[in-house]
């Protein structure tokens, strides 16, 4: 049996197990304590929903710190977790490309929502090939809409808790508004320094919201190849606009950014390493950066301090 057929056999076997274990008509929580068991792919969904859901939910993210969702493949343990969940949320928009078939299958037996795919199409960004940018959590207003859809799904699943969910959602959205106000400091960055250079094109929505020109070495997915020409083009942008700093990402190898820094140095241009940003993954649980709002604040502060510096 070839590698492809073995993988396909395992996928079909796993999904059969999932569907056999679930009942579309059973809304009794899988948790013995009666909490709604929520499974998400990324922490940018899980952590806000754990705050909004409060004592009524137990939320688990399949992908932890430093995990790249673009390349992630579901494990047997993931299949079990999804099987035992009451409700499943994922980002969609091809972020978790290797898991789409699993979610399509499981949606026949339990609530499954791709929160990025309920957003208005005219508010989504596309690259030059027409591929939709999945990193919607970097637009605070868009992410509100996605979380709103998730909360509505929870209300429908557990109407007895609907009032609690709504009150917590409104409180959380107020905190999101505070972060948005804090991020207005980015407008103080001089126009000639408003270039955000990162390892891959994850910050398009962030750039649109805060009026920054975003340059990613890779495309929207980390599965895209990085060529010598990509590195050289980025170096030319740094030289032309005197970009003071570039940034690595917590979930991506820093070799491409290192190559840019060294390449620029070889051409007589000193560009600083501005720090580490959280893009496709958040920080460790229990840290400030392990929360959605804390991660966002960290990125704002890191970018502000680096781009406001003298650079050269």
Automatic annotation (TrEMBL):
Main location: other
Keyword Signal included in the entry's annotation: yes
UniProt subcellular location: Cell envelope
Keywords recorded for this protein, A-Z: Metal-binding, Signal, Transport
SUPFAM superfamilies xref list: Helical backbone' metal receptor
Gene Ontology annotations of biological process type: cell adhesion; metal ion transport
Keyword match Plastid: no
Domain of life: Bacteria
Stretch forming the signal peptide: 1-24
GO molecular function, one term: metal ion binding
Pfam families, per the entry: ZnuA
InterPro entries per UniProt: AdhesinB, Bact_metal-bind_prot9, Lipoprotein_PsaA-like, ZnuA-like
Cellular component GO terms, alphabetical: cell envelope
Recorded family membership: Belongs to the bacterial solute-binding protein 9 family.
Name listed for the protein in its UniProt record: Zinc ABC transporter substrate-binding protein
Upper classification of the organism: Bacteria, Bacillati, Bacillota, Bacilli, Bacillales
